[in-house]
Amino acid sequence: MSDVRQHADDIHDQFSDHIDVSVEDVEERLTTLVDEYKVPMDEARRSVTNHYLEEADLEREDISRGGSEAANVEDVDEPEQWIDLTAKVIELWDPRSDSVAQVGLLGDPTGTIKFTKWAKSDLPTLEEGGVYELRNVVTDEYQGRYSVKLNSTTVIEELDEELEVGDDTSEIEGALVDMQSGSGLIKRCPKEDCTRVLQNGRCNEHGDVEGEFDLRIKAVVDDGIDAHEVIFDKEATEDLTGLSLEEAKEMAMDALDTTIVADEIMDDIVGTYYRIEGPTFGRYVLADDVEELDGPADAEQLLIKARSM
Amino acid sequence: MSQSELTREVARRVFASEFNDSTYTFKESDDERAPNYALLPTGDRANRVFIVGTLTETEDVGEDSEYWRGRVVDPTGTFFVYAGQYQPEAAAVLRDTEPPAYVAIVGKPRTYETEDGSVNVSVRPESIAVVDDATRDRWVVETAERTIDRIEAFEEWEAEQEAPESASTAPTNEYAQMARKRYDSPVINYRNDVIQALEQLEDVESDAEAPA
């Protein structure tokens, strides 16, 4: 395939979903510019692309640069990447703005990610539980969390197949360097499906309520390169500290103070090395599997490396 | 709220010899609340450190109120840790712990100029915990690894500087550049400290394995 033909193919791919144009037509425009007018290829591409943008009444942002690539959810680690996803709609949420047609959670075997579908894009409606091939979606990032946006160039195809959705599991190894407020013996709102943590006996949603006791730890595990926030739920906290919810309640009752539980736990865990495995939720890792690293550390390999430097 | 306030500063792993040489401090922006960083001579910035070593001595050096100083020794030197009324938990640990004991400390680097004009670097602890020897050994190995990684990145950058014709692919290493400008001691010194620290561990291990 000639060089010009290759470029023509690329441009054609970007527009074939929007306007009726043949590869030959694109090639001819490119050839004219490059051969007759001696315009450099990148400039010619730019010019031809702009021509079709105008014809299709699109913005430059609406078309992908050089085509989107098939990707898995776990691969998304950069904003403004154009990708194709095959994913299941796990949940649909209520859009908070009129400019959003649908918002929710997509999942594939490698993890889950939020999606937003703009109202102005005029795309077909996604159904909860449906599996779709989503071509030409663009990634976005907000405060370290990634999402994908469905836009007017996105092609949605419903697939008649089941898709297993996996956890976005991470494994971290490092020292527990801090325990944050809201750890230890806490109270949660008892209203159904609420479970918010009470602040001074008040729930943000339901006001003054008779809270239910729970145990949890919000901690920072740091390997010297990244600081990860880790949440231990009741079971994980009990396993980690050997302290049961009942014992924690007794302890607080004796001291007439719930903060004694957090103090006690903190003394026990800060400064200790752990390996933690679990699903990630935004910036938090949920501690599913926790192992204290108290075995001997191996210095030999490093010593060989250091000596050879 | 700005992004920097949302991101928690990583606790760097650094041996005492390098930490005590980290005399140059800086901010990344003019904002009054912008975090302060100590410049590590191997080319990184540290707003927070995690250290584990032997607490060998504690002393209340305060005049009006309690101000505790602890000496924490690692295989390469001594960290000086100061905790007063604004670090009540850490001060209490220094008051109540009987040296010698292994301690793990999370804290911030602080510098102060002495009367003779030299700059001392110390640790202002956020937390101090008494730990066991396994934690201390793991810290030595981990700190050796992080230090080697920094030295490698520094030397890669340096090699690129000396071969400018290939500079197009040069890894940028802002803090290596800053370190070379601010400090005199060659990074190879810190490699020697790493070797010394690891050899100490290996010696202890082979002693333990040797038949009686």
UniProtKB/TrEMBL annotation, chain A:
Gene Ontology terms: biological process: double-strand break repair via homologous recombination; response to ionizing radiation
InterPro entries named in the record: NA-bd_OB-fold (IPR012340), SOSS-B (IPR051231)
Keywords from the named record: DNA-binding
Alphabetized CDD domains for the sequence: SoSSB_OBF (cd04491)
SUPFAM superfamilies: Nucleic acid-binding proteins
GO terms, molecular function: DNA binding
Name under which the protein is recorded: Replication factor A
UniProtKB/TrEMBL annotation, chain B:
Annotated protein name in UniProt: DNA-binding protein
Keywords: DNA-binding
Keyword DNA-binding: yes
GO molecular function (one): DNA binding
Organism of derivation: Natronorubrum halalkaliphilum
Taxonomic superkingdom: Archaea
Region described as Disordered: spans on this chain: 157-178
Lineage summary: Archaea, Methanobacteriati, Methanobacteriota, Stenosarchaea group, Halobacteria
